[in-house]
Amino acid sequence: MIARLLLRVVSWSVMAYLILPLLVIVGSSFTATSYLAFPPQGLTLDWYGRMLADTSYLAAFGTSTLLALVATAAALLLGVPAALAIARCEFPGKRFLLSLLMSPLVLPHVVLGAALLQYCAALGLMRSFTALLVGHIVIVMPFVLRSVLPQLTPEQRALEEASADLGARPMETFFLVTLPQIRSGLASGAIFAFISSWINVELSIFNTTAEMTTIPVKLFNYVQYTIDPVIAAVSSITIGVAALAIVILDLTVGLHLLSDRR
Amino acid sequence: MNRALPLLAAPVAFFVAFFAVPMIVVVSSSLMAGGVPSLGNYARVLLDQYHWDVLAATFRIAGLTTAACALLGYPLAYYLVRVVKSRALRRTCVILLVLPLFTSNIVRSFGWMVLLGRNGLVNDALVGAGILDRPMRFLGTELGIVIGLVYILLPFIVLAVGNALAAVDPALEDASSDLGATPFDTFRTVTFPLCLPGLMSGIVMVFTLAVSAYVTPALLSGGKITVFPMLIFQQYSTVFDVNYGGALSMTLLVMTLVLVGLAGWIGNAGADAKGRAAR
């Protein structure tokens, strides 16, 4: 009984610990004071107004969004064929190839960012959108592979073969049979890919400039010098985007985490 | 059967061009000094006591973070999967767990900069409750960095352990208690061993992410504490010494991989021992 009570207390304290910082940021973005105050004193949307008036924030939001969208699209275009080949073919070095493609998940992003800075400088692409983009594609592709590969099962394969036997061309089979079958894997892979790109600092920071920067990197550079409620407002927007992504994820594929799917 | 093989051409070409080759460039630069092949950069890294101090601080912070994540995350995972009966409540909790994961490290660390400040909510609460006489310094201490990192990495452990727990058939636990085991014995001999692989993979993930974290330590250290990724960042962003920076990068990479390998090996050895004991 005491163990139960203790478990309950620890669990709810940990949940509170997980929610508190986000609550503080969103709350203090509405404060009427010129410094960050939590609980907020007064209630104003001024800081959001200031953020919208500063075009550099809008530009950074734009860069981040474009980067995350293009990186996700490219990761799908590269990752889905790779997953199909890995699921369907036997070839020497397959395990090695798969670990190579998945390794950006565990590799320190600082190391990869530094490597791409040096490499892209040699190619004449230093601190360009292209340099940012290739790095983001590398780090988000594992999410596509991880969510699509488990769906390419023998049962899924059987339907494809039936489609081919009935006279469908390979492209017809792919678009009419395979894609609908792996739809939920594509959706969750794409959402994880988008978000990982959208929130990245450690890789982006090497290839951004004062003019071309992403929103997390801009926040990072700003927070080291000043903390004011504008930062809280910008942060709150990113928290809103995260919440939106989770709602979409829940509605399209369902958040099945921590529940028994049998 | 192998008709699908050509599909690999584009993804593999891309990974070679923008992942493998850049990493090889870093390795080869790290082995060059003054235009000639040399191990001098590594000597510079490994023979300097300062680097060992920074590495020790980095791994100490990562170790404490991992331990705290496991100790806090395991009970929460168990509670959410085994105790919470309401599906709606569990779903809400899962959403609240994933929300921080979908938010940038910078935003989350920024929240702690506000909370842990001299006049922040944490100090106010501790002083108000009479636990402290005067505000304590968190920012610029290893404790502050650990608090921030635990916060960032905790969801990984909860999800890893929770998913492993959800896959354990409750019938096994029922059988154990029907055969007369106390709840604690059932947990110790049935539930815990069965979700040990989930816990181990969560621990490895948290540890590698903690060792390579740059943003959180940079914001919460207040310039007073240096962790290894900061040294790498300095070399590439301000000094632009790719040879020495490359050696630092490789040192971090190798040290991390060795420790991850070691953890996997200990985990496997533990699982084998358990398997033998069961037989």
Automatic annotation (TrEMBL), chain A:
The keyword Transport applies. The chain crosses the membrane at residues 12-38, 58-84, 96-117, 129-149, 190-210, 230-258. InterPro entries: MetI-like, MetI-like_sf. It holds the Pfam family BPD_transp_1. It is found in: Cell inner membrane; Cell membrane. PROSITE patterns: ABC_TM1. Its main location: membrane. Residues 61-259 form the ABC transmembrane type-1 domain. SUPFAM superfamilies: MetI-like. It comes from the Bacteria. Keywords: Cell inner membrane, Cell membrane, Membrane, Transmembrane, Transmembrane helix, Transport. It is a multi-pass membrane protein. Belongs to the binding-protein-dependent transport system permease family. This is ABC transporter permease. It comes from Azospirillum isscasi.
